[in-house]
Automatic annotation (TrEMBL):
Family the UniProt entry places it in: Belongs to the bacterial flagellin family.
Localization per Swiss-Prot or TrEMBL: Secreted; Bacterial flagellum
Name of this protein: Flagellin
UniProt domain Flagellin C-terminal: residue ranges: 393-477
Protein function: Flagellin is the subunit protein which polymerizes to form the filaments of bacterial flagella.
Length: 478
């Protein structure tokens, strides 16, 4: 049936043309934007997933920027610490030279002051983005390392700045790793307290040993060891509790040595230790009328030093004779020196008995009892050397502290570099994931565009043909 009011062929052709044009418009949009899913209406599920992934990727981009800033911050602090170590090493060299007797401490102090000023400058200038870990209050700094999209939180790396805090205030330091270094003044030592370290082996401690101490300007005092003084810690405690010695020095154990520190500023301390070994009385059992008595001493020649004493008494007498050791370093040398000493040779004869020192009574009716005091002297110090020794110890501690702090910064920088690489890989993965969901396949889109353009042309021609049907009806009435 042909109708003048309704052209079904034209309607069909028009609907087909509209469909083709809609598809063509969509394809042209994909080509112009490069997106297959440009908005939620295109594919709500894909659009939602891609939007979240884009958001997480943006956060990872911020994390990468933060890591770069953190690395630059670590580099700034590491460089300042490295420069500070240079200053400290120079100070160590100068202080070592200052330990030599006769050193010009005033001139060395001028050089030390320059290094101290350099340390303060390095600490003050180590500022990055308003952050200065080397100068100011210490605490924990949290550096951004990653973003957890599922937990919706930022993960951080904690840096303990107390391990690299050089000064709490470089201008007027009251704390920090270099506080003790900043106070060094070897040219003005009266504020220092003298000390001496006495080297004593715990194996040498025994009842009757004597520790002698002298604080400059005071009388030498002594302490006789008791049965309980079997280790350095106990000995130090008993010395501090002693009314005489405890009033002048404070005893402590430092690096396995007994340290005696003056309780008065500007006072030096000297000390010595007498390790008394009592030999056994080896008088002949047959009795003094027939055989002269003798006594043997086991002498550790490695410990012989100027000032050691060999004491002996003959036939239980109250008179004790003493021979002071000088440069003798062997049993034979002791034998020779003692026999050449008229005071000794009048009572006893010295001989070498298989490596032991034998003292035999000259009078066959006498016995002999002998003892030996091996004196190990502590290090006598002077005012200047006190300051230098303390300063050198402070510098050494500072070098160790800064080395540990620099190692901590280096380890954390390595961790950040690894994290930066991981974040970069993760960001690339998210970018690829977003592309898989929303990006258009340009090869497919261009092919589809050509096909739709052809369909559009055919649709226009089909609509034109369908519109000519009305003209055919007109010819029926001619």
């Amino acid at each position: 049936m042909a109708s003048i009011n309704t052209n079904l062929s034209a309607l069909t052709a028009l609907q087909s043309l509209k469909s083709t044009q809609s598809a063509l418009s969509k394809t042209q949009g994909q080509i112009s934007t490069g997106l297959r899913v440009g908005e939620a209406s295109h594919n709500a599920s894909y659009w939602s997933i891609a939007t979240k992934m884009k958001s997480d990727n943006g956060a990872l981009g911020a994390v990468k920027d933060s890591i770069k800033q953190s690395k630059a911050m670590l580099d700034t602090n590491t460089s300042a610490i490295s420069k500070s170590l240079d200053y400290l090493n120079k100070m160590k060299e100068k202080l070592t030279a200052g330990s030599n007797p006769g050193a010009n401490l005033d001139a060395i102090q001028v050089e030390l002051k320059g290094s101290i000023d350099g340390l303060k400058s390095a600490a003050s200038s180590a500022s990055f983005n308003g952050q200065n870990w080397l100068n100011g209050d210490s605490g924990t700094v949290k550096l951004v390392t990653s973003y957890d999209g599922e937990a919706k939180k930022v993960n951080t790396l904690d840096i303990d700045t107390s391990k690299v805090q050089l000064f709490d205030d470089a201008a007027n330091p009251t704390g920090g790793l270099l506080k003790a270094v900043s106070d060094i003044d070897i040219a003005n030592p009266p504020n220092a307290q003298g000390y001496t370290d006495v080297k004593i082996s715990a194996a040498d401690l025994s009842t009757g040993d004597t520790l002698r101490v002298k604080v400059s300007g005071n009388t030498e005092i002594s302490y006789d060891l008791v049965a309980g003084d079997t280790d350095l810690a106990t000995l130090a405690a008993n010395l501090n509790a002693d009314a005489t010695i405890g009033a002048e020095v404070e005893a402590s154990v430092v690096d396995g040595k007994l340290r005696l520190t003056s309780l008065t500023s500007g006072k030096d301390v000297s000390g010595s230790f007498a390790d008394t070994t009592v030999s056994a009385d080896t008088a002949a059992a047959a009795g003094p009328p027939a055989v002269a008595g003798f006594s043997e001493l086991t002498v550790d020649t490695a410990k012989l030093s100027n000032g050691d004493e060999i004491s002996f008494s003959v036939d239980g007498g109250t008179t004790v004779s003493t021979f002071k050791i000088g440069s003798e370093k062997s049993i034979d040398e002791l034998v020779s020196s003692m026999n050449a000493d008229s005071a000794v040779s009048a009572s006893v004869i010295a001989t070498n008995d298989n490596g032991k020192l034998r003292l035999t009574a000259v009078n066959v009716a006498n016995d002999v009892e002998a003892t030996m005091k091996n004196v190990t002297k502590g290090v006598d110090t002077t005012n200047g050397q006190i300051a230098v020794a303390d300063a050198l110890a402070s510098v050494d501690r500072a070098i160790n502290d800064l080395r540990e702090g620099s190692a901590m910064l280096g380890a954390n920088k390595a961790l950040l570099e690894t994290q930066e690489e991981f974040v970069g890989v993760l960001s690339d993965s998210l970018t690829a994931g977003v592309s898989a969901f929303v990006d258009a396949d340009m090869n497919e889109a261009s092919t589809r565009l050509q096909a739709l353009q052809t369909q559009q042309q055919l649709g226009v021609q089909a609509l034109s043909i369908a519109n000519q049907n009305s003209q055919m009806i007109l010819k029926l009435f001619q």
